[in-house]
Amino acid sequence: MIKKLLTLTSISCLMLASCSKEIVTAEPEPVAAKPTATLEVPKGFTWENSRAVNLNVTIADTKFSGKTYIVAIYATDPSRGSKILSKGALSTAKKFKSKMYLSNQITELYLICMAPDKSTTSKKVLASTSELNVSFGN
After folding, report:
1. What pTM did the predictor assign?
2. What count of other Cβ atoms lies within 10 Å of the Cβ of residue 115?
3. Which of 23, 94, 105, 123 is found 20 to 30 A from 14 (Cα to Cα)?
């Protein structure tokens, strides 16, 4: 029993000795926030961080006339694991339309078009306007 008591006392002393006191400094005085009405914002600044983009994709290739193609749209190079933004079907008779809301940081789009024979064609287009027209094929 004495042995257990000495062991517990020793452990308690070691625990108390290993504790260190933190030096607490005074917190700095908070800076008063300016009201939004007093902010100086450049003219034309819209506070928006995204925009709507209408994408129209057509097929000019007559190799598979009347057959369905698949198009997929990415924000970055899809070979690097990019997530898909939009995907759909199109043919020579019907174009693919998509309205997307993109971050203003996205300046280009990657499109991959898969033909009925599973062959693919890719394009990188600038996403600088609100209306994008892309054509695959001839």
Report:
1. 0.66
2. 18
3. 23
Alpha helices (H) in the chain, listed in sequence order: 2-18
In angstroms, the CA 16 to CA 50 distance is: 56
Q: Which structure tokens are listed for 74? A: 């990415």
Give residue-wise pLDDT tens across range 37-63.
888 888 888 888 999 999 999 999 888
Q: Are 104 and 124 spatial neighbours (Cβ–Cβ below 8 Å)? A: no
Tokens representing 53? 């983009």
Residues in contact with 120: Cβ distance below 8 Å, sequence separation at least 6, in sequence order: 112, 113, 114
Sheet holding 84-90, edge to edge: 84-90, 69-74, 108-114, 120-126
- The answer to whether 92 touches 55, Cβ cutoff 8 Å, is no
